[in-house]
Every structure is written in C-alpha cells, then in structure tokens.
Amino acid sequence: MSKLEDIEKAVAALAPKELARFREWYAAFDAEQFDAKIAADAASGALDGLAEEAMRELAAGRTRPL
Length: 66
Hints:
Blueprint: H1 3-12, H2 16-44, H3 48-59
C-alpha cells in the first residue's frame, strides 16, 4: 500500500472531531504551501509577464472594477 493510501485510510477512520481538527490543520498547511509557492514565483520573476499583461490591459481600458 502506498503512503497516500495509508493516509486516506487513516483520514477515513478519524472520529468527527478529529476530522474537523485535521481539516483545520490541512487548510492552514495548504495555504502556507500556496503562499510559499507564490512568494517563490514572485521572487524569481515568474509572475512578471502576468503583471505586465495586466498593466497593459488596464492601460488599454479592458478591465472592470472588482
């Protein structure tokens, strides 16, 4: 059995309160991973092209308020 299958079985066996705690932990963990990836991409310049494109769209009037 793979590690993922082991984890799936363990999660499926959690009591409701434990599952709720796991969800909270995983949501925070996932957000931290996402934030770290975005920060790394920003620092490396990987997002520069997207930012430049967005600025061109704004200057051309092809945007709308959020």
